[in-house]
Amino acid sequence: MGTPVQTKTPLAIAITLTLAMGVAAPLHAAGQDVAATSALAADATDLDRIEVRAQLESQIRAVDLKRSSDAIEDAVSSDALGQYPDKNVAESLQRLPGVSVTRDQGEGRFVVVRGLDANLNSVSIDGIAVGTPEDSSRAAPLDVIPSDSTERLRVVKSPTPDMPGDAIGGAILVESASAFDRDGRSLRGKIEGSHQPLSGHTSPKAAINYSEVFADTFGVALGVNYQNRKFESDNTEVEYDGEDDATPGDVTTINLQHRKYEIERKRIGANLNFDWRPSEGSSYYLRTLYSRFDDAETRQRTIFNFEDADVVATGTDQFRLDDLPSDAIQKRMRYRTKEENTFAASLGGENRLTSAVVDYKVGYTKTEERVDDEMEARFELDADDLSGTLDQRSRLPRYTLSNNDWMDNTNFAYDRMILSPKRVDDNEHSAQVNVRFDADNASYKIGLLGRWRERDVDVNEVELRRGPAIDLDSWTTGAPEHRHGSLGQGMSSALMRRYWAANSGLYSARPQEAGANATTSLEEDYSASEDIFASYAMGTWDIGALRIIGGVRVENTQFSAVGNQVDVAEDERSFTVTPRVANRSYSNVLPGLHLRYDAADDWVLRASANKTVSRPSFGDISPRVGYSRGDEEVRLGNPELDPYESTNIDLSVEKYLGSTGIVSLGLFHKSIDGYIVETVRQNDPAYEGFDVTQAINGDKATVRGAEFNYQQQLAFLPPGLDGLLVGASGTWLDTDFDPGLADRQGDDFMLPRASKHVYSAHVGYEKYGLSTRIAAVYRSEYLDSIGTGRAFDIFVAPHTQLDFSLDYTFSPRVSLYFEAQNLLDKPLELYQGTRSRTLQLEEYGRTYAVGLKVSL
After folding, report:
1. Residue 142 contacts residue 172 (beta carbons within 8 Å)
2. What is the mean pLDDT of residues 609-616?
């Protein structure tokens, strides 16, 4: 129970409430309705206690950020991050309208804005562009940044000319805390334990954030957080095949794999920020953010190659398996640790001069990935041949075999060891300056930006088949539990690593694998530099309630790279490697016009028309060539790829419901030229007799859509119910896309990774020291990859995420919380051609967490 508030004026109540909570964030930002804030504070005293209103406060901040923005954007504040059971930045962003995520092991990883590939987004930390540890893509994984390291997350969907133009999907802005975001000293901490019933593991998490302002001019903000999460997943993957012109339902299971993942995932985050404001017209800052993401993964899998049998149809989707050779059943054990580090630092300031305002910034970001120890041991069944049945009438194919020899590790013989180390380094330096001239009801702004980026990728894989036979029985453990079927006896990755540490020197590659090993260890390697020079001019004019922003941005890109041409002889026993160099320079002119009209009764109307770009993936433009003469295949990079260029139109209508609510509707249209697709062509004059795989600029892609968003505190309800907070959003997409495939003329395609429907909704309640929320996010199916025919297109099935959180405040300084994630126990599911052909089914189960928050 808190101490009763005895003051009578609403302003004094608000001040007392803020100081007693020990948090420095004000209850409203500049320009917000003071009466609404006073009503909020007064409501907190009706119960004769101090109330902590984290959900409402974060909603006020998000609404105010959207309302005051000149661009079309949505935001999440730091308090909202604490209200969701979110492990990382990607999962926090999925709550916003028009935003969804793709998942890795059940956790959000890549952010999808308005249905467009994450490759088409830009990501910045405190205004500095951040790279990616991915070896070929530009998509920045946001699961590497813990939510506790951030203060605000913003998604700008229609950038103004003073913002970088590489944002066809959207610009994702990650912002860490400033001490001036809070008043005076603030110290907050939390500890948490989470439990996953599927694995039986309980995992710790802790975070602490401190800030203080000295002499009203110098501020320090520090945050440190740690999480060590152990969990498991059950995965089954199926491969189907048939004639090239097969219908989606007319394909047969040729391979089935049961996979068991055991994962230990550590996140460490830290941010240290300094602010100095010596006078009203001058401010300076240093922002630093570091995150480390360690992922130790053990994967066991049992593989059934049914295509090696004589497959005889016995009915619709029913087959008899005759003469299945024993080596068609395999066991594999893989272990690897992946370390991804992200560091961002920016140093800058702002000075108000006699006739202008100048702001400037220099920045440095470093992202890296290290996989030094990936290894996989492979074994084949060495026993009598089998027979059996195969039934693919259910969600996953069912099978029976004539004996259970495959379940005993003593019956397996060593096949090979695969080593797959990888290293990625991505570094960028940047500098920018902006000058703004203010006039009566107008301002004019010009700016320069330079970015200097270096990437180095070293991807290796080698097969070692020469060496002593390994007795799999010596690595045997109990059979792992799996929801979809048995894997037989288990294998210990610890014993595998111990064996390899002692005996790795005894193993080598066979001569006939020299070419294949050269391909997997050299073809994907490249070093690249990319320099971007941008300038812009922009004007802002206020005509009554109308604000007009117009300008143009010009970005010049200079790219150079060194890759390898790997030419493997037909017998695969010899190869040649030739370095290849590529250089490219191009410029993009990006005009933009933005209108904002503040109508009466809290209505805001917006419209914008602009151009944005997204540069090709590094893996696509690296100057690589891979010849496989035995397979008559050629794989080519394409340094001549043009960037995607999009013409965008946005319209939105927003109605603000006091200081806590909003209802909005937005319409948007994107016409994307040169959409990049991977093609396979034959009869290329330069490579006669070869199948040539290469990414090319395809035809235009079109995206049309609508976004709806509503959120509000139901303060008008009777006492006891007036603590309800509700919200709902929806995104509807219609896309046209022609991949330019000669064999599929006339087929209609969704834009890859674009869901037609994305919905989210939440119901929260804050009263009597209780803050609770249930939140759901739904994403409809989407096209993942394009095959040679409709029967071979891969789709990701619809997915619904339902999460719950409850926070109870014992005093103004201490609260206890409970969180539950994936309450519906929904899996990740992929299918091939039709929903009845499940390609992958991966289940994670539910996760529960209990924690304690303290504010001093």
Report:
1. yes
2. 95
